[in-house]
Design brief:
Number of helices: 13
Shape: globular
Strand order of the largest sheet: 2-9-6-7
Largest sheet: 4 strands, antiparallel
Radius of gyration: 23 Å
Structural class: alpha+beta
Helix content: 25-40%
Strand content: 15-25%
Length: 382
Amino acid sequence: MIRKNDWRPFQVQDIFEVLNGKGITKQEIGEHLGDLPAIQSGEKNNGVVGYIDQEYCEQMKYTYSLEPCLTVARTGAAGYVTFQPQGCCVGDSAKILKPREAMTTESLLFFRTLFMANKYRYTYARKVTEANYKSEIIELPVTKDGKPDYELIETYMKSLDKDMKTIPDYFLEEGYEKACWYMDHIDQIDFEKNYAGRETNEKIDLFERKWMEFYLYDLFTIDSGNKYDKSKMSSAFPTVNFVGRSSLNNGVTAYVDEIDEVKPFEAGFMTVALGGEYIGSCFVQDYPFYTSQNVAVLKPLYQMSIYSKLFIAHLVRFESANNYKAFARELNAHLKTDFVIKLPVNDKGEPDYNFMDSYIKSLSFSCKLKGCSREAAKLEIR
């Protein structure tokens, strides 16, 4: 335990250089693929929006680090801090926090925790600027000469390692914060018995295929859904799922009666939330269903397995999170017209569904996807 009476205040600029990011577009990443994580302001996927070529970043004089560092979101999820163990390149909605002295992984994670405790100071209205973040105050344990006690910080963080080792690797693959959510809400033994396991142990590299852009309407018939009001639905003899704009439970918010002369949408179709807090939430529905307002239904134009649908559902969520905003730029006007996702393609330039299937089958929870049940759907998380 670190005694708080041995701590004193420092400004962030005393410990880190704050380096401003410069514009990186999705097109640039697609055209200059590499190994360097490209970071923007989102909280999902540790802020990573793709992987870009280091030499290209040098040519463009983009802001990057080849050493482990932290990043902070400037806008959007303003104040959100990520740890980048292999360095990164940051776009104009993020900044690099580069240690002035070499730090271990443990020390960087310690500082990330301190910075995240100050995240509440930043909002859409109060963005992270270089000046205000440099002058942000953090308290640190100090040595006798008043300098940050990195040795004590590292020792303390290593003392927590035992707790971290109790978290299974397949949870940690989702990121530290989501791993903690799993541990708080899911019984590990029961989960492993019922869900954990890969359908195949094949290692799949997403970058071994060429990727191309496709309009969503070239892959699916896009239906506007039922637009029903949940409060007006009856549930005396429920047989049909009711899908709303939720990111939990596969989007299912109620279990309702079937309406005379209104056939439910078929199991296997996909749903997309067109607006609201969870804009772009996309799921494969495993039971017949109705929808609320602002929930579209995707009906595949081609034969797709559950694996390909789940692969595409993730890309729909990713595209929505990065290019659309609730109450500002919602999907209503775009899903049927100009909504685009990138997919891996075969030699003919067609979506490579076999590759998508193989990738999903290689993931930690794939062994039960064929028989995806309501219980499995309940494990969907924000």
